[in-house]
Specification:
single chain, mainly beta, 8-stranded mixed beta sheet, 6-stranded mixed beta barrel, 34% strand, globular
Length: 427
């Protein structure tokens, strides 16, 4: 099956190295109370189409026109990028909606606007090297823009333009550079994770500090870029948190799909939690997160707890390894995915804020036998031994297949909601 199965990087590095205080993630949640299980997720919201200024249509499809290989299980949105305070705007489609990252990032090759630089102290231009766990990286300067999503606008937002050639990639920015639509499989990213900035306090530490991950650079010329200390106020920031209203979180709502998948799936990104008639929590189950955005998943039910994330930017369920799951691996071009001899039904629980567990039933199919025409599948999985910061820690990533048939809520850190302050997720 010819698909760009791993085209979009699993952006765990964003959570593991930058959110919270920037140190290695810990997994304090050991699961809910024994024997206490709430219903399978998906009860939050009413799964009917929402209307209003706080609604943005999203789609799972093959990606931007002209790709050599279509994408699989990638959620896209369209944003309007404007020169701040003007009507000089450009609408850019096929931005990856990623709850495992923060910030708007657009490829220079698709951006026709001339956005103003985001300068540090009014002099040196800021740039960023964002490393993904697949060994690739996104390099480019920071700009300032007004970003319109549906009927909501984030003004004066710091964004990244990926692949600008006016600044040479420094040697310390390692990994295969993603600079074009063909290599990225998208026109950019709409990072809507739980954190207010993409790095936070760690990147505000002195540039030489071992706890500063070195994401940000100051560039005094095309070939003179050095790791920098950047205040949180100047970092790439969460677009939803910058809205005047409906800024405490959001909902991703996708319909259920059949076992054979679909060529495309329409859904909605609804801004705010409990701020409008269309974004109430309903009976959704809240999932607590640690300072790095991790929850606790127990697999199988009653078994071992593992650190986990719920991440729309991952294009499969990624969990554990073949020896632990007893699922055989695919071969050839699909070698990074599980290929059981027949579709396998599995169950796990995610620790809930109530002290109980939210049970999740899911399926893993043999990817090589699924229709090549299906760009959306809810039964694709692969191994994930490692959290991104420590490859020895088994982990669980509830990727985009988890979102089908659910309304999944994300509350942003420090923001008030009717169910208490973020961060948390709910479904």
């Amino acid at each position: 099956m010819a698909k760009a199965l791993a085209k979009i990087a699993v952006m765990l590095a964003m959570l593991a190295s930058c959110g919270g205080d920037g140190v290695r993630p810990v997994f304090p949640f050991a699961g809910g109370a024994s024997g206490s299980t709430v219903p399978t997720g998906g009860v939050g919201g009413n799964q009917t189409a929402a209307t209003g200024a706080n609604v943005l249509d999203v789609v799972v499809d093959s990606g931007p026109p002209g790709l050599d290989l279509p994408n699989l299980d990638v959620l896209f949105a369209t944003a309007t990028i404007c020169v701040p305070g003007t009507s000089n705007c450009q609408t850019i489609d096929h931005l990856v909606v990623d709850t495992g990252a923060v910030g708007v990032r657009v490829l220079d090759s698709v951006l026709t606007l001339s956005l103003p630089d985001a300068n540090k102290a009014g002099a040196q231009t800021l740039a960023e090297c964002l490393s993904f766990v697949d060994g690739s990286s996104a390099w480019g300067p920071l700009k300032t823009a007004d970003v319109k999503l549906g009927g909501e606008t984030a003004t004066g937002l710091t964004v990244q333009v990926i692949g600008v050639k006016s600044f040479a990639i420094p040697a310390s920015c390692t990994g295969t550079a993603q600079t074009e639509v063909q290599t990225l499989g998208a026109n950019g990213f709409l990072g809507v994770g739980i954190f207010l900035q993409d790095c936070g306090a760690a990147c505000a530490l002195p540039a030489g500090s071992p706890s500063n991950p070195g994401n940000y650079y100051t560039c005094s010329s095309a070939s003179a870029c050095a790791v920098a200390s950047v205040p949180q106020s100047q970092q790439v920031s969460h677009p939803v948190a910058a809205f005047p209203v409906d800024n405490n979180g959001f909902i991703i709502q996708l319909p259920s799909i059949s076992a054979s998948g679909a060529a495309s799936v329409q859904g909605q990104l609804i801004f705010g939690i409990g701020t409008q008639d269309n974004n109430g929590l309903g009976s959704a189950t809240q999932i607590p997160l640690d300072l790095h955005g991790y929850a606790s998943t127990t697999f199988p039910v009653g078994g071992t707890p593992y650190g986990s994330i719920i991440d729309s930017g991952s294009n499969a369920y990624f969990f554990l390894d073949s020896a632990t799951t007893k699922l055989p691996m695919c071969t050839g071009g699909l070698k990074d995915f599980y290929c059981p001899t027949s579709t396998t039904s599995l169950s796990a629980t995610i620790a809930a804020l109530s002290g109980g567990n939210a049970r999740v039933d899911f399926r893993v199919a043999n990817l090589s036998r699924l229709p090549a025409s299906s760009n959306a599948l809810d039964n694709v999985a692969g191994p994930m031994v490692g959290s991104g910061s420590d490859p020895s820690i088994p982990a669980f990533d509830w990727g985009l297949p988890f979102f089908f048939g659910r309304a999944v809520y994300t509350a942003i850190e420090g923001k008030s909601t009717p169910a208490g302050p973020g961060p948390y997720v709910a479904f």
